[in-house]
Amino acid sequence: MQTFPFLFRSTTRGNQTATARSEEYDMHMNEPGYQEKTDAEIIELAKSNADFFGVLMERYESPLLRYIHRISSFDHDDAEDILQESFIKAYRNLNDFDHDSKFSSWMYRIVHNQTIDNARKNKTRVTVSIDEHDLIHFLRAATDIENETARKHDLASIADAVRSLPETYREALVLRFLEEKSYEEIMDILHIPKGTVATLISRGKKILHEHLQKADVQTN
Amino acid sequence: MNDIQSATIAGKILGKIKKEDIHPEASWKFILRKTALWIGISVSGVLAAFSLSMLLFPFISVEPNFLTFGIGRLFSSPVIRLIPIPWIVFLLIFVPLVVIEFHNTRHGYRYRIAMVASGLILMIAIGASAFKLLGVDGFFDQKFRDSIPAYGQFSETPTDFWSQEREGYLAGTILSSEPGSFTLQDLDGDTVNIQVERDTVLYPNVNLEQASEVKIVGTMNEDRSLKAEKIYHGAPKPHHGKEPEGGDWDDTARTKKQDEWKFRDSNAENENRKDRLL
C-alpha cells in the first residue's frame, strides 16, 4: 500500500483542518483496493472531498512537472508554481471534466496552457530543456539514432537541433516520444485533429532529420 | 525528482485548497455555458441560413435567363445590380461565427476546420433552401422593403432593373400598337414609344397587342423613344402598384421557366408575329 507523506507533512505545518482531513484521507487510503480505483472514480469522490484530489495530484505531479520542464525553460520554483496553478484550476473545473477523455490528457492540457500563458506573461521563450538521458531517448525514438552515435557527437549541438524545431512540431514530438502519448492523447492535449497530430509528428521528424544532418549527425 | 519533493508539491496544493476553501465550480455553471454555446451556434446557424436565403432571393426569384439580360453591359448587368450587399456582410459574419463557435465546443477541436466549415455550410445551405421553400425569404424581403427605406437602395429588385430607361431596360404594359412601334406604359406609369425593327428579337410568347406585358432591352433614342433590340414576355410588378394582368413578376418568372432558351431567331411563329406588327 502506497502512503501519502505529503499529507503528514502538511500536518506538521500546523494546518489543523488539513490535519483532520488528512487522517480521514489516510483512513480511506488504507482501505483495500483503493489504489486500484480509476481516475474517473477518484474524480467523483474528489468532487465532494478535496482529500481525494490528493491521490490524483500524487499520480500526476511528477510527470507533469517533468513535462513543464520539457516544454519550457522555467526553473524548478516557477515550474512548481505553474503546476500548483494548474492543479487548482483543474480542481475548480472538476465538474467540467469530460469522462470521454483521459484525466491525464485533461491535466496535460491545463498544464500546457498554463505554461504557455506564464511564458507569455514573463516574455519567456517557450523552448525545451531536455536532459542528456531524455535527449538520447528522444533521438532514438524520433530518429532511430543509436546511443553511441549520439554520444559521439556534441549533445549540445543535437539539443540545439531539437530546440530549433518550430514550436508546434516540437510540442507534438515531445508528447509523442518523451511523454509517450498516443495520437488520441496528443489530440486532446494540444486540441488539434488527429490527422494534424500525425502530420506534425511526421513533418517534425523530417525537419529534425534535416537539422541533425546539418549538425553532421548520421541518422539511420 | 524524489518522493519527498514530489509529496511536498501535492501537499502544498492540498493545503492551499483547504486553507482558501476552494471548491469545484457547480455543474450547472458548466451546463449553462455549454447550453449558451450551443444556443449561439444554433442562432448563428439560423441567421447564416436566413442571410443566405435573402442573398439568393433576388437571383432565384427572377426568370432563369434574367441574369443574361445584361450580358455585354458590365456595370448595368443585373448580376451586379441585384447583389444584396447587407446580406453578404451578414453571411460573412455568421458563417465564420458558427464555425468558430462549433470549434469551441467540447470536441470541436477533433475535426479539421475545413471539414467543420464544409459540413456547416452544407447545413446552412439546407436551412436556406428550407427558408426558400417556406417563402420566408420573399416575406421578409417585402417586409424590409416596406419598413426600411434604405433597404431597397442596397439591393435592387427586378422591377428596379426594368425601370432603367436610360440604360435601355424597360418593362410595362402595351397601351397601343401601330406598324413599327407601340406605346408602353412603364413600371412607373409613364408612357414611352418603342420602336420595333426587322432585327428586333422577339422571344417566345411575346404578344405585341394592347394590354400585353413585355420587357424590352434596347437603346434610348434622343427623342426619348426606345429602339427595341430584344423583347421578352411578361413584366415585373409595377412601382405604382398596378399589378399587370396575369400576376406579379414572381408568377411571371415561374411560368417563363418552361419557355427559356427555346428561342430561335428563325422561329416562324415569331417572324409571323413581327410581320403582323411591321
Describe the structure.
Chain A has helices spanning 5-12, 16-29, 39-46, 50-71, 76-92, 103-121, 132-143, 147-152, 155-163, 167-178, 183-190, 194-214. With 220 residues, chain A is an all-alpha fold. In chain A, helix 1 (5-12) packs antiparallel against helix 2 (16-29), helix 6 crosses helix 11 and helix 10 (167-178) packs across helix 12 (194-214). The model of chain A is unreliable at 1-21 (pLDDT under 50). Chain B is of the alpha+beta class and 278 residues long. Chain B has 2 domains: 27-154, no CATH class; 158-277, OB fold (Dihydrolipoamide Acetyltransferase, E2P). Chain B is built from 10 helices and 7 strands. Chain B has helices spanning 3-19, 27-61, 78-82, 85-103, 113-134, 136-147, 151-154, 158-161, 249-256, 268-277; strands at 163-164, 169-178, 181-186, 191-195, 201-202, 213-220, 226-233. Chain B has a 5-stranded mixed beta barrel with strand order 2-3-4-7-6. In chain B, strand 1 (163-164) and strand 2 form a beta hairpin. Classes of the chains: A mainly alpha (220), B alpha+beta (278). Chains A and B meet through helix 1, helix 2, helix 4, helix 5 and helix 12 of A and helix 1 and helix 2 of B.
